[in-house]
Amino acid sequence: MEAFVTSEIKNNIAEITFGTQKSNSLPGEILEKLAQTILDEGEKPEVRAILLKSEGDKAFCAGASFDELLEIEELETSKKFFGGFAKVLKAMRTCGKIVVVRVQGKTTGGGVGIACGADYCFATKDSALALTEINLGIGPFVIGPYVERKIGKSQFTAMAIDADFRSADWAETHNIYHSVSENISEMDSKLSEFLHNLSTRSEDALTLIKKVSWEGTEHFNELMPERIHMSASLILEDSAKQNIEKIKERLRAK
Which of 10, 18, 112, 164 has its CA 20 to 30 A from that of 106? Predict the structure, then answer.
């Protein structure tokens, strides 16, 4: 499967889908395209809300592309890559439209950031999540402000340190997921009804709800350059490259 981002408007809802071959992990090119697509759809007057989802019925998103991380050798290239995640999350925050995220399976790293960047998030009971960046030798610095906004600094710190998976029920209790279903079919049924109702709501009311829900996050823009630099510099270290290779070997052995 080639990496892709597609968008289609259905009943005033812009459905944006991304997909990559390796558990929907995200290379820099897809991050850039995803961010721009969110902004483009957000500017269309007929769009009441945006649905963001990934391809397939397994992992929602495995975060950063390991293959691309291994190829990065210069700081500026590294900063551009991690800046891609910042662009996606900023687009979700500032596009002016309600962003609904559909999580159909496990999600790690940057994928958790996307779930936390949602205004409303649907998931299945199999949608456990983890901040696994420490396993690579970096940290969830870029997505951090978005995750903290949902679960608080203490829980964010714990997730960043232990890198353990939390259940979908845990994620619902801690405000990341707003609806958890037994399976994909049930989730999609609930999601379809939710989006239908959303498409009939007052455009002005939805715009204002979006605005007030993100009040107090304007400083995220100021945080990002330093946060990007943190991850960008750490991933260049030899130990980080070795960690990624070890993880890839374990995945191949499964």
Answer: 10
Share the mean pLDDT of the chain: 96
Look-up of token digits 């964010």: 156
The three-point CA angle 156-161-162 to 5° equals 105
Residue 254 has what pLDDT? Answer: 67
Structure tokens at 51: 């649905």
Alpha-helix runs per DSSP H in 117-216: 133-136, 144-151, 153-162, 168-173, 184-199, 203-213
pLDDT, tens only, 174-211: 999 999 999 999 999 999 999 999 999 999 999 999 99
3-class state of residue 107 by DSSP: strand
pTM to 2 decimals? 0.96
Backbone angles phi, psi at 19, to 5 degrees: -160, 140
- Per the CB < 8 A criterion, the answer to whether 198 and 48 are in contact is yes
Short-list 48, 53, 60, CA closest to 34: 53
The distance of Cα 98 from the centroid of its chain, to the nearest Å, equals: 15
Please give the Cα distance from 49 to 232 (Å, whole number): 33
Say which residues have a Cβ less than 8 Å from residue 157's Cβ, sequence separation at least 6: none
Residues in the chain: 254
Angle at 18 between CA 17 and CA 22, to 5 degrees: 145
Cα separation of 183 and 208, whole Å?
A: 33
Q: For residue 238, count other CB atoms closer than 10 A to its CB.
A: 8
Amino acid at position 187, single letter: M
